[in-house]
Amino acid sequence: MRSAALSIGQLWQAFAQIARQTLLGGGPPRKLDHFRWLYAPDLLSFGYALRTTISALIALGIALWWELGSPQWAALTVWMVAQGTRGKSIAKARWHMFGMVVGTICAIVLVACMPQAPLLYLFCLAGGIGAFCFIGTLLPGPAAMTNYRIHGMRASGFTYAIIALDGVLAPDHIFEIAMARATYITLGIVVETTISSLFQYRLENRARNRLASNFVQALGGVTRTLGRLLQGDRRSVSTSPEVFSTILTLSDQVEFAEIEMGKHKHEGDHARAALAAMTVLMSRGLDLAALLQVPDSEGTHYQQTAAEVSHFLQTLPGRVDQDQPVAPVLRELDELCATCRQLAAACLDEEMVAATHTPVNRDEERVVSRQGQLLHKLGEMMDELRLALEQFDMSRNPQPHDHFRYAMRSYRDWRMAFTNSLRASVTIFCSGLIWVATAWPDGLTFMMFVSIVCALFSTLEQPALATKAFLHGTICVIGMCGLLDLWVMAQPTTYEMLAMCLSIPMLLGGLAFAYVPLVLAAVAYNLFLLILVGPLNQGRMDEVMYFNTALPLLLAMVFAMWMYRVFLPFDPDGLRWDMRLNILRGLRRLASQRVPELPSEVVGRSVDGFVRLSTMTPDKKSFVLNRYLSGVLSGMTIGLNVLRLRAILAQGVLPPGAQRATQAMMNRMQRFTGRYGGQYGRTARATHLAVQYLVQREQVETNLSVRLEMLRALASLRVIETELEQNQDFFDASSPYLDKAFS
Predict the structure, then answer these.
(1) What's the CA gap between 274 and 211, in Å, rounded?
(2) Of 81, 333, 541, 556, which is most buried by a Cβ count within 10 Å?
(3) Of the candidates 689, 692, 620, 703, which has an alpha carbon nearest to the alpha carbon of residue 654?
(4) Are 597 and 590 spatial neighbours (Cβ–Cβ below 8 Å)?
(5) Cα(365)–Cα(351) distance, rounded to whole angstroms?
(6) Where do transmembrane segments lie in this chain (predicted)?
(7) Interval 259-310: pLDDT, tens
(8) Nearest 5°: phi and psi at 198?
(9) Predicted model pTM
């Protein structure tokens, strides 16, 4: 008996080994990490999927209980609004409700104005969705699916399309149709926000902790980058695009924490100001890196101070991560700042002594002067770090009667907004022409799905990639709904059984949505699952209705993806070239404006372009991309120093000769086009001549205040000269594309 048991066990082991070799092939077992979201999800992902599934089933049950005509729209709205955190859910629900109201009103007006003019009707429908895309592109925040201000315009677009296309067949009942759609959407929003509020515990404390952890996360990236810079890696800032991306992303997420905190005391404003200060801190690092390119600039005093600052930066994230007062850190930071100022003043004193006592050692004086400039820039960098830590402390410990404000800023491109609007309008109008020309019985459904896709993705920078992922999710949901409609859904006769049949497919969609690589595919899956199931009180989705809905859906996804690739497709070369021209125009504008921009505006616009540029291509190590990224940061550095030179010239402290040399450089910058006449161009030559003249004039200046202003002007001019020289390939705009120049 025992031998028989052993033989059966050995047989089972042999069978298991053969099965593994057959399914997985030879060698070590394959990793299935990309399926962990399905078989081993984390607690938060499973909680989100379970909570949203329950909310969707409750909304569907209420809609069936009320005997609404299309109850699936209530559950569908739950999936559109539900997010991983309470703040995101509430923010998206608010803007979704706003978009629903705007889209409903516009749809009623459209159907009431032109029920008997089909082509004009299609033109106005397409133009209306294009207008929503145009407005959404100009709203503050990144052009991403997580920007819920833009989502308000997306919701306006597809609500407008759904109601207007439903009203085509019954224009006399457009008000009833609109009110029915508004009822579904309102019901889904109310159910989702109510159910999600039951799963929140100590929401305000967790929101405050998330604000602090976001700051520490951004601070860690900044301090590591600046630490490498002080240790000798002069390109550490320009080769760290992920630091800027992290700061920008975390800044956009502050508003969700503000919503979760409820009645707050401007903690979010201080958090945004702290993250903005870290962006300016990185720009100070670029100034320091440019001055380090100057020969004979590093001396003993600077090297010792840079080592102390580098050690301080390495330990800083761990010291502010704990819930401890920031005062000790600020005191140590003040000591470092005082050391930088004292050593800079000592260098200036040595330089004055060398300039006023004969014989004058010009080489020694030059080294001391450059070391003093480095110490001065290092002190400015520490001042900016102090500002960021102070704002962080005020966000963590809010004060009563605080009226501080730091609003979100938008740096949208009007040309991009027009392109997005035109792309959406033409795509929808062409789908309408297909419906009119072919008299396809399901052409109206086809056009509705195309309108939904255009409303959702036309505000993105790369809609073709988004629609490709959306197509994958659509194919999956068509297969799942085929299984449900043709086999499972024919059995249940009560709502309880219907909910049991839908719970597993919904739970799978929720788990996929919580897995970042599958977000867009999961959106399509969750959006169209209930549309293809079509639950009703009196009836079921039979095979004819299923195929007549699935086919237009699939063709609409293919058509939209094809149009995004054919009509005004995403052109990375053109986008880079436009960004490059905008930088050159911006430098001319900064040098010539009567009322100059604020430095924060220059930094914000440059960082926004930097992040857009770094995310437009998957090849992060591309030589051309790296040159463009360096050029964008170089343009920001030059722009900030142009503003500093304007402030120095406005004071009128410089000697007449230095004033004229600096003003000549600014006059050339006002006509800066990037088209160089020589090796470095007129602007580069004017900058070089101004640097040479100020160096000679500064060495013989005996007035301390005048010499200090000349050193400030000289530091800015040296930074501009270095950036123009180091990034000549970017600023030389004589070739159509930088890519061809490097090929």
Answers:
(1) 11
(2) 81
(3) 703
(4) yes
(5) 6
(6) 46-66, 95-112, 118-139, 182-201, 417-437, 443-460, 469-490, 510-533, 545-564, 625-643
(7) 777 666 677 788 888 888 888 888 888 888 888 887 766 667 778 888 888 8
(8) -75, -15
(9) 0.83
